[in-house]
Amino acid sequence: MKKHTWKIIFGVVILLLGASIVYSQQASQEANEGVVIEPHVKGNADASVTLTEYSDFQCPACGQFYPYVKDVLDKHGDSIRFEYKHFPLITLHQFALPAARASEAAGQQGEFFAMHDMLFENQTTWSQAKSPDAYFIKYAEELGLDVSLFKKHLSSSVIEDSIKKSFSEAQALGLTGTPSFYLNGEKMVYTTYEDFNAQIDAAVSASTPGAEATVDTSSSTSAEIENTNIKFEI
Asked: What's phi and psi for 232, nearest 5 deg?
């Protein structure tokens, strides 16, 4: 009798295990359904000047630099192509990867940069929460996204793989801190915002015959770069 009972219990466990695996596979397929990963480009996609940022949504220095990048794009308009790339320093920032996922989930509905702005503008709020997911969903609602679809895409393995790929790209370049910027493929080295701005002004001027470079000296804020020598794993 006992042997028969154990057989029944074992059979039930196997059935539940099988059902769990099937459900997990279905959930994964639903999360990945329709997901398309594209470069995150702002400004003029065909501009001859390209500014690339490797960044972390929870990095305080990236948050401080966010308005400066916005000023550069406002100033140069169609003369510059800006591309954002993920470099979540997860050994320092526990919510950097979830935030990157949230931006990509919003990107599936054409609102990557809208969520990008939300995350940086509210960085001190969600980054100090026990769990930031409620804030991410709130931001999705405020942006008018399909929240049900947004929630599904938060767990997309395709999205996570794309973030890992961007992270690996940053590592291959030897980057150890955020934000890190490349101007026309060359890593930027600067100590102040004025220097950062002047280098971009010069690149834009060089790409525009007859134009003269103008340097914005209205701010004396130094670029605070979050720099580490540790090896990051994601």
From this structure: -90, 145
Q: Please state the three-class secondary structure of the chain as a single string.
A: CHHHHHHHHHHHHHHHHHHHHHHHHHHHHHHHCCCCCCCEEEECCCCCCEEEEEECCCCHHHHHHHHHHHHHHHHHHHHCEEEEEECCCCCCCCCHHHHHHHHHHHHCCCCHHHHHHHHHHCHHHHCCCCCCHHHHHHHHHHCCCCHHHHHHHHCCHHHHHHHHHHHHHHHHCCCCEECEEEECCEECCCCEHHHHHHHHHHHHHHHCCCCCCCCCCCCCCECCCEECCCCCCC
Q: What is the mean pLDDT of the chain?
A: 85
More confident site: 7 or 152: 152
Structure tokens at 231: 């090896």
Query: Per the structure block, which two tokens stand in for 15?
Result: 């059935």
Q: Which residues sit opposite 52 in a β-bridge?
A: 83, 182
Full set of structural domains in the chain with CATH = 56-227 (3.40.30.10)
What pTM value is reported for the model? 0.79
Contacts of 95 (CB under 8 A, 6+ apart): 57, 58, 126, 127, 132
Pairing of strands 180-183, 186-187: antiparallel
Residue 228: phi and psi, rounded to 5, are: -140, 165
What is the per-residue pLDDT for 33?
A: 82
Over residues 157-167, mean pLDDT: 97
Total residue length of the chain? 234
